[in-house]
Design brief:
alpha/beta, Alpha-Beta Plaits, Rossmann fold, 2 domains, four-stranded antiparallel beta sheet, 13 strands, 30% strand, globular
């Protein structure tokens, strides 16, 4: 069995030794290891893939015991047990299409357990990929009830993380705090950037030479969460606003897919306002 272990704690001597000793004790063999100490928070982060004949519970018990003196935030899962994601959308389909296609073709190691939308438009798309679709309309009077329904789905479906794939509603600060580090959003620019409506038209009017996208964790502060992935495309004055919209859609879906893959593979560690990314 191949396992993925994640660990986060205060940086102290002996952490790697204790972890490797525990892995050897369960007859494990390390296949991949990445580690980093964040200089801002002094948090030590590590991701380790290892193979072992031990059961998940036996491996977890031994790791927890040998590492207990460091009081770590410790995660362990069998690599073939996929993370469960819930995708939220409004009416734009480009990010959802891309995620469903990548999952269907084995390029995205995640189980998409539901699509939630405040509009009915993308229900046929979800049905085409045999993913349950839940329409939860959101208006000022129904916002609290809508978020309560979302909470129920997260619990009932065993959701590990939520993906806002061009979901055009602002989540409440309370929900953002409850799901801290578990909601990823795609933003239409290389942050910081143009806020509000028609961002690509604003970019066109300002004559920008780069457009891009940013995938980040959602916080109560709008579009200000820890950044997971970013990318840009160079454009010239000859491009129209329509060209920028089309190019923007391309970079948005690529960046979001990369971010979802990183999270699904436990390659993202949240350290304060920043992230540590253990790339392949």
């Amino acid at each position: 069995m191949v396992y993925v272990m994640t660990l986060q704690c205060e940086d102290l001597p002996g952490i790697v030794h204790a972890a490797s000793t525990a892995i050897v004790a369960v007859k494990g063999n390390i296949l991949e290891n990445d580690q980093f100490t964040d200089p801002v928070t002094n948090l030590f982060c590590m991701r380790t893939r290892f193979e072992s004949p031990a059961s998940l519970e036996d491996a977890r018990t031994r790791l927890a015991s040998d590492l207990s003196r460091f009081s770590p935030r410790l995660g362990l899962r069998a690599e073939d047990v996929r993370r469960r994601a819930l995708i939220m959308v409004s009416t734009s389909d480009h990010c959802l299409v891309d995620l469903l296609y990548r999952r269907e073709n084995g390029d995205l190691p995640v189980d998409i357990v539901a699509v939630v939308s405040n509009h009915p438009d993308l229900a046929p798309l979800a049905a085409r990929y045999k993913v349950p679709f839940y329409e939860i309309p959101v208006t000022p009077p129904t916002k609290v009830a809508a978020e309560e329904r979302l909470r129920e789905l997260v619990v009932d479906l065993g959701v590990d993380f939520v993906v806002l794939a061009r979901y055009m509603q602002v989540l409440s600060p309370e929900l953002c705090d409850e799901l801290r580090g578990r909601i990823v959003n795609i933003h239409h620019s290389f942050l910081p950037g143009f806020k509000g409506a028609r961002p690509y038209h604003q970019a066109y009017e300002r004559g920008v030479k780069l457009i891009g996208a940013t995938a980040h964790f959602v916080t109560a502060e709008l579009d200000d969460g820890p950044i997971i992935d970013q990318d840009v495309i160079r454009v010239s004055h000859a491009r129209s606003s329509g060209d920028l919209v089309a190019l923007g859609r391309d970079v948005e879906r690529v960046v979001l897919a990369r971010a979802v893959k990183l999270i699904a593979e436990d390659r993202v560690a949240l350290v304060g306002r920043r992230t540590v990314i253990f790339s392949q």
